[in-house]
Amino acid sequence: MSAPRFPDWPHLYREGAADHPVLLMLHGTGSNEQDIAALAAELDPAAAVLAPRGRVPESGMLRWFARRGEGVFDVDDVILRAGELAGFVADAREHYGLGDRMLIAVGFSNGANIALATAMLHPETVDRVISFSGMYPFGDRALEGTLSGSRFLVLNGRSDPMAPLPSVTTLVAELQRRGADVGQILRDGGHGVDRSDLEAAVDWLKRRP
Predict the structure, then answer these.
(1) Which one, 64, 98, 135, 189, has least CB within 10 Å?
(2) Pairing relation of β-strands 181-187 and 56-58?
(3) Do the domain assignments include residue 37?
(4) Has residue 80 been placed in a domain?
């Protein structure tokens, strides 16, 4: 499935205050752009919202990229889809007249993984990420190239079976190795967006990293 032309890619856009960022909201498996867009109001009610729809079907649910099993990603497809999302963001900037406004990718679960992958592969397009219950999206493959100037907030539950702690540890180490500024919050519990995660994300956004 090739990437659609921008107008044909299902997505939601809501304008916000010009002095607030654009939140690129990326949903998890089985969800959609409407669901994840609602989270934006809890993070920054004045932000613009750009929420595309994942386009990879799996058992009737939508995802951002293919996988071979739980936690086993098709890394080549991750790379392909990250490139498509980067292209979508570039087109959205032009289409909606966003200019050089700060854009922050906010993803949950599979949405966090594509946000991370896109920022790690295309930092010129996405260089700010809030990752809720995400993990390292490239398996045992390491990447090169600097992420200096990129900033990430990584929020996870210590006992999350869907985003295992060893993969999260790999993610943070790889981001730091490549020069990114990384904030990490580990809490008790598993997969999901905890109230403490939201509070940490709001604080991070208020500081406008």
Answers:
(1) 189
(2) unpaired
(3) yes
(4) yes
Written as six digits, the tokens of 55 are 């386009």
Quick: pLDDT tens for 45-96.
999 999 999 999 888 899 999 988 777 899 999 999 999 999 999 999 999 9
- Residue 60 corresponds to which tokens in the numbers above? 């009737």
Torsion angle in degrees (nearest 10) through CA of 68, 74, 78, 84: -90
pLDDT at 1 over 60: no
Where do we find the tokens 């999901």? 192
In a domain, 1, yes or no: no
The answer as to whether 141 is a domain residue is yes
Amino acid occupying residue 14: R
Phi, then psi, of 159 in degrees rounded to 5: -110, 35
Higher confidence at residue 28 or residue 5?
A: 28
Mean pLDDT score of the chain, rounded to an integer?
A: 95
168-197 pLDDT, tens digit each = 999 999 999 999 999 999 999 999 999 999
Spatial distance between the Cα atoms of 150 and 178, rounded to a whole number of angstroms: 10
Pairwise CA distance, residues 110 & 137, whole Å: 9
Q: Name the domain count of the chain.
A: 1
* Catalytic residue set: 109, 160, 191
Chain centroid offset of residue 44 CA: 16
Give me the CATH number covering residue 89.
3.40.50.1820
Report the run of H or E that residue 112 belongs to, with start and end. Answer: helix 110-121
